[in-house]
Amino acid sequence: MARENNITISDVAAMSGVSIATISRILNNKGNVKEETRKKVMAVIQSVDTNGTLLSKFKKQNGNLIIAVVTNDANPLISPFINGVNTCANSKGFHVLQYNCFNNAYDRIEFEYMIKELPVAGFIFQQIVGGSELTDFIAARFPTVVSFEQYQTENISSVGIDDYAAVKSAVEYLITLGRKKIALLNGDLSMPFTVRREQGFLDALKQAGIPVCPEYITHISVSDFNYNLARNAARQILSMPDPPDAFFAITDTFAAAVLKEAKHLGISVPQDLAIIGFDNTDVSTMTDPAITTVNQPCYEIGYQSCNILIDKINDPSLASRQVWVNSEFIVRDSTQ
Amino acid sequence: MARENNITISDVAAMSGVSIATISRILNNKGNVKEETRKKVMAVIQSVDTNGTLLSKFKKQNGNLIIAVVTNDANPLISPFINGVNTCANSKGFHVLQYNCFNNAYDRIEFEYMIKELPVAGFIFQQIVGGSELTDFIAARFPTVVSFEQYQTENISSVGIDDYAAVKSAVEYLITLGRKKIALLNGDLSMPFTVRREQGFLDALKQAGIPVCPEYITHISVSDFNYNLARNAARQILSMPDPPDAFFAITDTFAAAVLKEAKHLGISVPQDLAIIGFDNTDVSTMTDPAITTVNQPCYEIGYQSCNILIDKINDPSLASRQVWVNSEFIVRDSTQ
Fold it and tell me: Tell me: the pLDDT tens digits for B136-147?
């Protein structure tokens, strides 16, 4: 009977045959529910929620004003993103606190503490940091949004760019420049966005009739997403007997690593090697040449993520949503 | 009588003539206090703490396990720093949550909410983000550490490098290379660390008998600490009829901005212009040439900040401390 401690509104819906929206109205005392339905639902809850966990969660809900943002702080997009979340949250009377999943690993004790002791109303995840097991666990209990992703389930909304199309367009641009030996420096495929970006890369090549060279594709563990690993990976690929003439890198930092290694090896950029990064961080304009990249509207992603989260907090009956925002391709000297 | 709501242990100490350490022992029921003293202190508290604010704060203290870290997320040192804080906190049963002061401005409502509603045991500030008014306000109520600073008051401990000596040594190194026209790109002087770094700069010149050229010194508002502003500032100085032959920049990002503008103006680095940055972030190795810089041990600063904070939480009678950690000067190609 361990399940009793983790009873959710979805369980009650399944057992009573009453919709989640109606159960929410009952627990929030919002009226518009037949007395017969109310009695049926409360009977189910009393039979399974013996610890009162579900009820106390709902009783506390009106006072739950914290939006917990789960991030991997190593990501330079976080600052404008959190600023967007804050702006939206504060305008609606919510408060934002940030929890860092270092190396994308989460500490279960931390989350149990947060859920039990703090008046958290909802969660925003930067991508699925901590892994899908964590986001699913949280989403079964709290309104949840995943940002910088298109990751939708029954319980999870998301806000992000079209990663597939953004990468496909960027690679098509390289092809129009006459490049045919195109390498990819990607994160590992444990994250939905890395999978979609890789698919965009592969489809661009396929549609142009360019065979994929598996040796040109490298995956760096997302738990170890750093500049030095990217330099090692770039050095290996650029040192091949038949090196690529273009590189698509999953972040500007990785693109800077490719550029650095190309210079060390005497490879001219962009003449012998075109390089495209991702994110339009300051790094992409600091290097010489500056790096062609894809801009994500981080502030807007943060603002919209918070906005749909608060809608869901205020009305748990709302279905999950998938919000797409526009990315922008920025051509600089690394691909001329 | 508005003051009654903000009564602090310091007020009780002043009014009762009993030390803060003793009052802490009384409120924490730690014994070793004469009954006569205890009665005197409790009488003072009962007369001034009519709302019970002080008492309820102390009663809750054993359950207060959150360490709130107040940061300005735009700073690239934050990730390893928070990692250090987390590691120490988790090993001692505390939980870390982060609050962002964007543009170094804080929202009073946010802090009032945090203090009132969350079981916060202590605060760590990244420098004095939010301003000294905020740190002083918090430090009067909670154990408080300021990190990346030497900022000590009766209530505030700090953990940081010796900013003065680090900058003085770096500028002395430029002088040994034969540079005499040395520019400074600093933050504004609202922060203790920018003041100390500027003093190190000025003293290095003074001791070498090099006159200070005020036109070579620029201050960028710390509320607007960004790459593009630094580029504008660097462009102005490098376009002077008699430009500098060396630049000390307060961050690697600013040093990268100086390098970028030098290249645009056809100034060779390091031949015509030597450049030194600060922080040893990835940026300092991404540029070409790589930038000479000063490393701060961010993880260690985070770990030690949390460690002395928890000591103080566990024993409020401890005096504030000033912990110095070692910086490291790293010579790269921008100053050969």
Answer: 999 999 999 999
